[in-house]
Amino acid sequence: MSHSPSTLLIPVEIQVREMDAKILLSAVAAERGFPVIMGSRAFIHFQASSVPSGVYLAKSMRTLSIRMFEILRELGHDIVAYDEEGLVRAPDYEYYRWRLCPETFGQVAQLMAWGDDDAAVLRAYEGYRGAPIQVTGNPRIDLMRPEVREYYRPEVDAIRARFGDFLLVNTNFNKVNHFFAELSELKSAAEAGEDAEAHPFEAGKGRHKLVLFQHFLDMLPKLCAALPEYTLVLRPHPAENHGPWLAVAEHCSNLRVVNEGNVVPWLIACKALVANSGTTQVESALLDVPTLNFEPVTSEEYDYALPNALSRSARSAEELCLLAREMARGALGPLDLATRRTILDPHVAALDGPLAADRMVEVLVASGYLARQPARPALATYARGLLRNRLRTARKRANMRRPGHRNNIVYHAHRFPDISAAEVQARVDRFGRLLGRFAEVRVEPYGEYTFRFRT
Length: 455
Known about the structure:
alpha/beta, Rossmann fold, 2 domains, 14 strands
């Protein structure tokens, strides 16, 4: 067993949603003395055999990860995991089916949770085998804390200069309006109806989301007409097809369709948020943004309780227009702070005190990873992992050339646009100026779409 520190592998799937938080996490880890490789999840997987034995910080534990988890462990990496989607989730039975599986759980050395509620759900899973669960929070929440949110001041000022007074409309219809139509999983399930291949929950949720999708399309011209002096900025989910929204915008002079950067500066800059049952409503509650949950149809089974509880409700386009105008004028604000904290506290840790990024790194230090690397695998085991990773990489790279495939390089570029090491360094420096930290942290290219953080 080596006495060198473990290298941390920190994968990012959707850049605009995850990367700023993971830059902060990587900087905190590097400051403590960890070597860190951060970047595109696909390309971190390709490069996993070039990294000394370390810790892979998994962002999900789905069935799709079984093979990669096996390869990582054969290459000598430990896996510490949390679920990026664990804050706002489906009912437990469906969450367990869709997001977790016993084979991935069995390969995880340690788990981290958004809050006490998330920890309890992980512990109750039938595939749970006793891995320690630490309630750390998530660095995405750090970005919304008062002492950190000024990180986005340049973006906020640029957004306001560009759009003036605007309302933000956030959509999450990627499962029925995907960037690649054939990957619209819930739409396919809904269209399959009672066929054997359609899972009942997916088919039902698909029908529900398709109805909501149409209501949003119908509502937008009415909202634009009701608030002609304001701009409406519609921000689709990063995996959505923009086409249907752009078609509406052709007939609405004050509607803009934009998906740039992290959502936080857009929330800070806007007068109010309009959304439906999504994580953005939790983020808006943390940022004191007036929020409307547009819910012309509802479902206890398919809607998410947490974001809806943190928002004001509009049951029709007409009601939405009235309330949105009151919010835009400043006459109607968010739910009061005490109410929001009562709702949030069981679900979100690290709203006060040490940052979630510091808490996560402290868990790794306490587990001994700063003092040592994981035990080296047997030579035959390592050779098997090396071969499997090379074969997997060759297959994935071939799929990147296949039109419409989920690994297609165009879709990868949509989710993870090119970014330079200098740009990542500039973000580290911006965090550093706010927090009085990271003066010694340096970022350099590691490979395609990946970066090394060091001191």
